[in-house]
Amino acid sequence: MSWELGLFVAALAVVAIGCLLPSGWLPALPNDKLLHFGAFATLTVLATLNADSYVALGWWLLGLLAAGLLIEILQNLVPGRSFCWRDQAANAAGIGAAALCAPLLLHF
């Protein structure tokens, strides 16, 4: 496994675990939408490191969108958590914003 893929998998695991912890285990969050945006923007940048073409990147991005949706669905099974379309919108916005910026960042 390449270091880029390993880093992506580790980051995805951290995001999934953080999103699926019971609400009583978490500190008060001032704006969780910013956390969703930032987490999925970061995952998008890491996905960009793993994509070898624009077609592959498109699949990575669709996979991230699906992963965000799956996490939101699974939150219904976690005490104190529930599905939220606004969280999924923040996930999608993070993916979209980073997808526009990631190719520029990779040239540095």
Tell me what the structure shows.
- The chain is mainly α.
- It has one domain (3-20, 34-105).
- The protein has four helices and no strands.
- The model has no long low-confidence stretch (mean pLDDT 91).
What's the helix and strand layout?
Blueprint (H helix, E strand, L loop, with lengths): L2 H18 L11 H19 L3 H21 L10 H21 L3
Helix pairs in contact: 1-2, 2-3, 2-4, 3-4
How is this structure best summarized?
This protein has 108 residues and is mostly helical. The protein has four helices and no strands. The two termini are 24 Å apart.
Give a quick set of tags describing it.
single chain, 73% helix, globular, 108 residues, mainly alpha
Give the N-terminus to C-terminus distance in angstroms.
24 Å
Unreliable stretches, pLDDT < 50, 5 or more residues?
none
Radius of gyration: 14 Å
Estimate percent helicity: over 70%
Compressed to H and E, one letter per element, the order equals HHHH
Structural class: mainly alpha
Q: How much strand content do the residues show?
A: under 5%
> Please, what is the oligomeric state?
single chain
Number of domains: 1
Largest sheet: none
Query: How many DSSP E strands?
Result: 0
In DSSP terms, counting alpha (H) and pi (I) runs of 4 or more, how many helices? 4
User: How confident is the prediction overall: mean pLDDT?
Assistant: 91
Shape descriptor reads: globular
